[in-house]
Amino acid sequence: MPALSVRSFYERYPYPQKAADHLSGDILPSSFDAVRHHCWAGRWPAGRSFRALVAGGGTGDAIVSLGLSMRRRGIAGSIHYVDLSKASAEIARSRAEHARLDNVTLEVGPIETVRGEYDYIDLSGVLPIVGDPAALLRHLASLLVDDGAMGVMSYGRVGRTGVEPFRRIYRTVMGDNVDTAAARELIAALPPHNWLKANPKLGVDLDRIGDVELADRLLAPHEFAYSVTELAEMFDRAGLPIRAFIPSLLYEPAHLLKSADLRDRLAGLSYIERAQIAEDAQGDLNKHVFYAAKIGTAPIDIQGLLDRDDVVLLPRNLDCRGMSSALADGADAVSVGIRIDGVERSVTIRGGAEAARFVAALEGEPTVGGLRSSISDDTIRYMSRLLVAVEALHFAVPSS
């Protein structure tokens, strides 16, 4: 079986494997609410067209998620998709048509040849497979307007522990040939304590996933995984400082510590230093999702926005009724299951009637001022901070 280029690889294995009529849910980073929240502090000027580039769009998850979220918010604009793989682009085209997105244009070709001017660029799963990521980022940065921003998903170095040793085994045995049957034989031969098999996210389901998922996860022609620090340095050099790794709860190590002295030491570190500690401590972040922007690195001012009565609270993938019911049943600490980074995680929330009313009210996308008549400021701030930290809540500031 001949060696495959990146283009040929994704012609054979269009990724992710999706039916032509599949409608994505609200995925990150490709959600307008999340982009507006993190990149422009919840603001988007009324009447301004939103021009997005989905670079390396695969089978269309990003264009469908972004397009549907723009429609839901009444945001006018356009989405331009580019990908090397014609097979992937055809699936993306069918999905966009099924979603009735008439503002999407598609192009088959290299990202490096794209021209134009964009407010936002979506770059998911591309940095791990390109030969010169620095050059790619410089090109993409040149396409952004002065206040432009980028949403990125890239592989995480620590969380992909075990992948590179397996790739070395595979390349030594099979050379550059891509053969999922041979990969499965090699995986089956690994002892239980092998780092890939022991990886809690990437190794536990290798006997159950399909060939497309297996090939993308382990057999792509190139693979580069990055730490938090490496990504921050790379994006700084491109003139795109990182604004936020998300969900922020996974990148803030303070909640892992009980010692006040150690927490004080963490407080003296930079945002990137703390995020790197969190990556190293948790060990299972096999991908990093983050936003970067030309306008600087200051994170969104949650406390400042909560001072404003006109700020709108927008829940994301949140079972408001179910969580409200669970919170109402407990006055002290309630353990609530929230899906974060593809994994069901347990988050402890201070319960009680007010917390329950707050979550129930989110279903109607209320303003902060609208909540203040029946919910205390302390509860509004506490619950907002917590839900923002798990990407279950975003803010929108009305534009003039």
Key features?
alpha/beta; Rossmann fold; 7-stranded mixed β-sheet; two-stranded antiparallel sheet; 17 helices
Structure description:
Helices cover 40% and strands 18% of the residues. Helix 6 (163-174) packs across helix 7 (180-189) and helix 14 packs antiparallel against helix 15 (353-362). The protein has 400 residues and is of the alpha/beta class. The chain has two domains: 6-158 and 223-293, 3-Layer(aba) Sandwich (Rossmann fold), CATH 3.40.50.150; 302-396, no CATH class. The strands form three sheets. A seven-stranded mixed β-sheet has the order 3-2-1-4-5-7-6, sandwiched between helices. The protein has helices at residues 6-12, 32-39, 61-73, 86-98, 133-143, 163-174, 180-189, 195-198, 211-218, 228-237, 260-267, 271-282, 302-306, 320-328, 353-362, 368-372, 377-389, and strands at residues 50-55, 77-83, 104-108, 118-124, 144-155, 242-246, 287-293, 312-315, 333-340, 343-350, 393-396. The protein is globular and about 65 Å long. It is built from 17 helices and eleven strands.
Describe the SSE topology.
Blueprint: H1 6-12, H2 32-39, E1 50-55, H3 61-73, E2 77-83, H4 86-98, E3 104-108, E4 118-124, H5 133-143, E5 144-155, H6 163-174, H7 180-189, H8 195-198, H9 211-218, H10 228-237, E6 242-246, H11 260-267, H12 271-282, E7 287-293, H13 302-306, E8 312-315, H14 320-328, E9 333-340, E10 343-350, H15 353-362, H16 368-372, H17 377-389, E11 393-396
Parallel strand pairs: 1-2, 1-4, 2-3, 4-5
Antiparallel strand pairs: 5-7, 6-7, 8-11, 9-10
Helix pairs in contact: 6-7, 14-15
